[in-house]
Amino acid sequence: MEGSLYKRRHTRRPTYPLAHAARQKPRRIPLVLRFAKGAIHNIILIPVLLHSLFTVLIVYLDRNVAGSLGVPATVIPSLSIVVGLMLVFRNSTSYDRFWSGRNCLTTIGTSVRNLARGFLVNAHRSKKEGGGLTDAEKKDTEKIIRVLIAIMYAVKHNLRAEFNIPPVPLSTSSSSEEAPIETSKAEYFGLLPDGLMGYEDQGLSLPLQLTVLVESYIRRGFDRGWFNAPQSSGLSAQINSLVDAYGKMETIRSTPIPVAHLIHQKQVLALFNCILPFATVDDFGWYAVPIVAIVSFTLYGIEGIGVQLEDPFGHDKNDIKMDGIIEDTRQEVMVLLEEWKMAADGHAERMAGGMFDF
Fold first, then answer.
1. Treating both helix axes as pointing N-terminal to C-terminal, what angle do 75-122 and 206-224 enclose, rounded to 10 degrees?
2. Which positions ≥6 away from 77 have C-beta within 8 Å?
3. What residues have CB less than 8 Å from 306, skipping those under 6 apart?
4. Residue predicted with more confidence, 15 or 253
5. Based on the number of CB atoms within 10 Å of its own CB, is 348 exposed (0-12), middle (13-18) or buried (19 or more)?
6. In this structure, are residues 306 and 91 in contact, taking their beta carbons and an 8 Å threshold?
7. Which of 48, 234, 262, 345 has its CA at a distance of 20 to 30 angstroms from the CA of residue 133?
8. What burial class does residue 307 get, using C-beta atoms within 10 Å of its C-beta: 0-12 exposed, 13-18 middle, 19+ buried?
9. What is the pLDDT of residues 212-246, one digit of tens each?
């Protein structure tokens, strides 16, 4: 019976590091031919179409009704400088937000890894102290490792404005009509301690609430003699780094590009593309229509990329792959936890190259 339990626990799953965050398959369609799944054509279709139709109207009036409507083409370079500067600023700012958000997520994942490693390696008693842990200590350590993983999910959902912990104990909330748990959040509700009460309705974010539980565990570990003072300080510093990174992600999420810049950018883009038909109609005639369509497609496309990257924590194809990154970290930490449980139960001598040797 014991051997079969060991075998079940050590059945290898078909996975590998970064399995969920990495691209699963090669691209079958060249990117130049892609018009969906990550493209921004749906965002810019209407403005490109409107500018093309406006150009058709201008060419028709120029050729058949009002005579020459053309303006000197020298007006285009002066306007294009302004348009280019505004688009460069918008895209660089948006990508900086994307890159900063990705680095902050890495900081959170690294902190969770370091805390899990520190907790599992040090959660044991020396042979002089009798060896072995009590059932309460094992459950306490397992609970806090699961809480560490839950912090990442809580960060993800909070950044997506998916506030979800009801102000009643989780163990009873499933039957409560006042605060039902959404099934879409079940991916990490099982990681939370039984009886946990949420305070999001009072303004306390769940990630910060969970870090209090982790800090309390460090205090208990210090009292049990698992961590000395420098170790406890280092573990607390990891929690501080995690909270700091989460705060930076909140800043990105809650601070959009100033509306004055967005308004002026939209107006300048529209003005430039509305003047372009007048500057090209005399020289190109009906060819002005595809020229304006290509220019508007290019400029509005660049602006559309900035819109996509401005808030990188959503579900879009161009957002940070938070689901896969967090799932990879969860897989890593859960493997560590299972190995620790086997060692804590006295099975370390049966594992080839076991990680935990108590």
1. 30
2. none
3. 87, 90, 91, 93, 94
4. 253
5. middle
6. yes
7. 234
8. middle
9. 999 999 999 999 888 999 999 999 999 999 999 99
Distance CA 182, CA 160 (A): 15
pLDDT at 33 over 90: no
Task: Give the residue carrying structure tokens 């493997």.
Answer: 335
Q: Is the dihedral of CA 5, 346, 137, 17 positive or negative?
A: negative
Tokens (6 digits) for 12? 């290898």
Domain ranges of the chain: 104-256+319-346
CA distance 140 to 311: 37
Angle, nearest 10°, between helix axes 75-122 and 322-344?
10
Predicted confidence (pLDDT) at residue 173 exceeds the cutoff of 50: no
Give the position of tokens 């579900």: 315
Burial 129-162 (b: 16+ CB within 10 A, else e): eeeebeeebbebbbebbbbbbbbbbbbbbbbeee
Token pair for 46: 């209407």
Listed in sequence order, the DSSP H helices in the chain are 2-9, 41-64, 75-122, 135-159, 170-173, 186-189, 206-224, 229-254, 259-284, 288-310, 322-344
